[in-house]
Design goal:
alpha/beta, 10 strands, elongated, 235 residues, 39% helix, four-stranded antiparallel β-sheet, Rossmann fold
């Protein structure tokens, strides 16, 4: 493997960027591609599919044999609000392979007894996210139902390009939320990224069913995300 490509691969992984090592199995030459970079037409579909699925794959194109070895950062879910939905969602998401963190400054809700074995932080999101910033491979789920708690992480998720941003609430609540975010300077394209009401429309009623709908939407968004655009701050 080319030393420069190895360094670029390791740098991307340390920076939590999705990256693929493409090796020509006939010549031994390799190429490193970071998600969002342009890939030549013969390999483009295979590389984009690998970035979406996270699965490495062998490809035969134009008489050549290639291996696409893809590395995705572990996907995170940050749940804002230690509510009943969070109890179910955290456990389901962990089973699905996500790293999960719950943030809620309300110590009456954010108790170890209610969230045994879960990464739980009883503090304000603004303070926690300063030291543990969001990124493009993080989903933010705001379910506290309190604008003082939810609005900051939602705004931060839009700024940092989180792959999923969802917020609990009725359509009226969502409309009020969008108006507050407009006041912070977000345009309609950015606001359209917020899933609200949250989750896939499966007729969910109980907290556990809502958690299923939310997790399904997160997975759907992750696997069908745009892998052709560079990842980074959206402003």
């Amino acid at each position: 493997m080319d030393a420069g490509n190895l360094a670029r691969l390791n740098d991307a992984r340390r920076a939590r960027k999705a990256v693929a090592l493409i090796t020509n199995l006939d010549s031994g030459r390799d190429l490193v591609v970071i998600e969002g970079e342009v890939v030549s037409a013969p390999l483009r579909d295979a590389v984009e599919a690998a970035f979406r699925s996270g699965k490495s794959v062998g490809v035969d194109v134009d008489g050549g044999r290639y291996f696409v070895n893809v590395h995705l950062p572990p996907a995170n879910i940050v749940i804002i609000g230690a509510v009943h939905i969070s109890q179910a969602l955290a456990r389901m998401a962990a089973l699905a392979g996500f790293d999960v963190r719950i943030i809620d400054p309300r110590t009456a809700f954010a108790t170890p007894e209610r969230f045994a074995g879960i990464d739980l932080v009883a503090d304000w999101p603004a303070d926690i996210l300063e030291d543990h910033p969001l990124d493009a491979y993080t989903a933010v789920v705001a379910v506290s139902h309190d604008p003082k708690i939810d609005d900051f992480p939602i705004a931060e998720a839009l700024r940092t390009g989180c792959f999923y941003v969802g917020a609990l609430g009725s359509r009226k609540t969502q409309a009020a939320r969008l108006e507050r975010l407009r006041g912070l300077g977000f345009d309609e394209v950015s606001l359209a990224r917020i899933s609200g009401p949250i989750g896939l429309d499966i007729g969910a009623a109980s907290p556990a069913e809502i958690a299923v709908a939310v997790l399904a939407e997160i997975i759907q968004t992750l696997r069908f995300r745009d892998v052709t655009s560079p990842k980074g701050d959206t402003g």
